[in-house]
Amino acid sequence: MSEAPFEAELPVSPHSAASFGRRRQPAIAEQAPDEHELAAPAAGAPSPPGARPTSLDAIAELRRLCLSRLDPVAAAATRAERLTLEIERLIAEIATERRIQLNGREQRQLAGELVDDMLGLGPLEPLLADDSINDIMVNGPGSVFVERAGRLERVPVRFRDSQHVANICQRIAAAVGRRVDESSPMVDVRLKDGSRVNIVLPPLALDGPCISIRKFARRVIDFARLIEIGSLTAPLARALEIAARCRLNVIISGGTGSGKTTLMNAMSRLIDSSERIVTVEDAAELQLQQPHVVRLETRPASLEGRGEITQRDLVRNALRMRPDRIIIGEVRAAEAFDMLQAMNTGHDGSLSTIHANTTRDALTRIENMVQMGNMGLPAKAIRTQIVGAVDLIVQVERQRDGVRRVTQVTEICGLEGEIVTMNDFFLFEVQGETMGGRLFGRYRASRIRPSFHQRLAYFGLERAWLAALEEAER
Ligand SMILES: Nc1ncnc2c1ncn2[C@@H]1O[C@H](COP(=O)(O)OP(=O)(O)OP(=O)(O)O)[C@@H](O)[C@H]1O
Ligand SMILES: [Mg+2]
User: Fold this and answer.
1) C-beta of 404 in contact with ligand 1 (< 6 A)
2) Which CATH number applies to 124-214: 2.120.10.30, 2.60.40.10, 3.30.450.90, 3.40.50.1440?
3) Which atom of ligand 1 is nearest to the CA of 217?
4) What residues contact 122, with CB distance under 8 A and at least 6 apart?
5) DSSP code of 390?
6) CB 267 within 8 A of CB 240
7) CA 262–ligand 1 middle distance (angstroms)
8) Is the Cβ atom of 226 under 6 angstroms away from ligand 1?
9) Digit-coded pLDDT (tens) for 293-336
């Protein structure tokens, strides 16, 4: 009976305990490789008594054999240290069996890679563990970039092939009960640590599966830290602090990855702990410290195209939850209208971010978004809403030296005819560049009396506001 050897209970290696993730394996003889596997250069030749040298092929063969003898489900349930130990033993066994010479370092490296593949996110693990990296971008198996200190750089991390990347994608999605395959080739998910991940598979991605990860910042970036980094100055921070305290409605605007969410997190820390805050996000990233926070997250449509819950649905629902403040992670679509409604109907102090390149641009985008969701609403009516709702727009930018800076703080003053009038309280002017390539400059501040001066007075913060502006220019 030819199948007998497969069914026989084999003594597992003397080192390994039965529960570890090895498959019940056939006898070594059964695992005899195909002819060509052994037909490596040394096979026919008078082979050295010891072993074959380690070529990349030999390591690939070792990896393949190891994987074929491991049970991924059992391995996934094993602790990392134990699995590493067992895999190292397995590698040693197979290396001896196949006469592949491997030094200790190579053996540990291979074991590490296998453990990362089985328990974690494979070659991405070292990048995830590196705190100096903000973003990880995989554009197919051989092209991996990271953002470090505000700059993009290519890293020598490689996946074996597209399938290897695809497997990691599956693992990321499966961990939160989602699927990523031909029928849903684009997904947004979060890793266990809160990092935000976007996956796009071929054929939509032409050069292999793409993964974009915005890592969860372990180190909190509050105003003190922002000042330290040079993202803003102390007087500007004070002005934003005053804006948060006296419940102005603030929109943070900026390009992709410019630091919008981070600044919003920093501002949200200034909200009083007695307030009830409802947050609405596509992928939860906000880290509010207050005790009374309700977090809502959108839901994509199911595979049958049903059950989608949009930000607009959530904002409308949030209004029925007696919120003191509503925070919307990023306005992107029709919910802009509901956000303005919320800001205009007593939910002062609401915050949101928007993708735009200047504060004027941000205004136009809000207008367009409202128009898209409410066809036929005249531009003037929308602008009146905006002027009534939004107090300040704060622009952030990742500048060419890699530093993310607040570049503009603009007040929405009013409507003159059909034009929204605005005033820049702070405007960053680049003055030059240091030897090290770092930009330096100053803020120009405007002393015009703000349209929200009554509110400043009501909170007793009028003087503090003026002082911040004066100090900003010094
Ligand atoms: N002022 C800053 N100084 C240094 N690093 C920052 C600063 N602000 C944000 N970062 C880092 O930059 C990355 C992008 O920040 P963030 O998520 O806030 O940007 P974003 O504009 O919200 O991005 P997206 O457009 O993708 O929503 C994060 O890793 C964050 O930790
Ligand atoms: Mg963001």
Assistant:
1) yes
2) 3.30.450.90
3) 31
4) 113, 116, 159, 164, 167, 168
5) -
6) yes
7) 5
8) yes
9) 999 999 888 778 889 999 999 999 999 999 999 999 999 999 99
* pTM as predicted: 0.80
Strands (E) across 291-337 are located at 293-297, 325-328
**Mean of pLDDT over the chain:** 86
Q: With a 6 A CB cut-off, is 256 part of the ligand 1 pocket?
A: yes
Kindly list the domain boundaries of the chain, sorted by start residue.
4-119, 124-214, 223-473
Residue 193 CA to ligand 2 center (angstroms) comes to 17
Is 253 near ligand 1, meaning CB less than 6 Å away? no
Q: Give the pLDDT confidence of 387-428 residue by residue, as tens digits.
A: 999 999 999 999 999 999 999 999 999 999 999 999 999 999
Q: In the CATH hierarchy, which top-level class contains the domain 223-473?
A: alpha beta
